[in-house]
Design a protein that fits this description.
TIM Barrel; eight-stranded parallel beta sheet
């Protein structure tokens, strides 16, 4: 396993995303992923599966200290007193004393960012989380967050895959020492039929998904693919035995297009 390091955090470069996983199957996938060697699990209050993630973690038999666990605070809990309460409720659902990383899930312009970051930092000093960060923040919002946060931020988690150019956000994160985490790293499965990725994959005896994940990891990006299929779990983590050439990296980057974004909501910020 490779690691991404930022502001004191050491994060396994491949994690398991759990968005849209629920109930008993969610616990089973988390358990199986950990048994296969995953050491990074990503959940959120909005996914409504924190309880199952905790169950899967315990069922796996893997030591809690060996797993990097992330959850995210939903936007309606950004007021300072509400943030702390909601985080304690998340921990109660997971039956854990703390997480490794606590993120603001999306920007929320209705609550002053300084207040929210103050509360997020307070959660860290209280021992509810080891590290803090943000998600879906634009360049301008990352700049603001870094300036306003009393505690160092570890990452910005964003949609990132070959069809979406995130060079500006990446450069800003690099400048401030933040890691970039990629959700939807295989573009919600759309890369499976991509001829460029298939061709590169053939030369390495790898699938388009594996090529895609390797492309992210070689940029020092932590990728969190989601799957509900046990056989895909193995495939997604078997990317550390090959390397893409500079030419292949460029070929993949050239797949980006202006309509590449797959996750966009009415409450989303104005993207870079």
């Amino acid at each position: 396993m490779l690691f991404v390091e930022a502001n004191g955090a050491r994060i396994p470069a491949i994690g398991l995303g759990t968005w849209e996983l629920s109930g008993r199957p969610a616990a089973r996938v988390v358990e199986q992923a950990l048994r296969l060697g995953y050491r990074h699990i990503d959940t959120a209050q909005a996914y409504d599966n924190e309880r199952e993630v905790g169950d899967g973690l315990r069922a796996s038999g893997v030591r809690r200290d060996d797993v990097f666990l992330t959850t995210k605070v939903w936007t309606n809990h950004f007021a300072p007193h509400d943030l702390e309460r909601s985080v304690k409720e998340s921990l109660a659902r997971m039956r854990l004393p703390s997480v490794d990383l606590l993120l603001l899930h999306w920007p929320n312009s209705h609550v002053p960012l300084a207040e929210t970051l103050g509360a997020l930092s307070h959660a860290k000093t209280m021992g509810l989380t080891r590290h803090i960060g943000v998600s879906n923040f634009t360049v301008a919002l990352v700049e603001q967050a870094v300036a306003l946060s009393p505690e160092p931020l570890v990452c910005n988690q964003v949609e990132y895959h070959p069809y979406l150019d995130q060079a500006k956000v990446r450069a800003t994160c690099d400048h401030h020492g933040l890691a970039l985490f990629a959700y939807s790293p295989i573009a919600k499965g759309r890369i499976k039929t991509d001829q460029t990725l298939a061709e590169i994959g053939r030369s390495h005896h790898k699938s388009p998904a594996q090529v895609c994940l390797r492309w992210l990891v070689q940029q020092n990006v932590a990728a969190i693919p989601r799957t509900s299929r046990i056989e895909r779990l193995s495939e997604n983590i078997e990317i550390f035995d090959f390397e893409l050439s500079d030419e292949e990296m460029s070929q993949i980057a050239s797949l980006a297009n202006p309509k590449g974004r797959l996750t966009d909501f009415g409450f989303a910020p104005k993207w870079d």
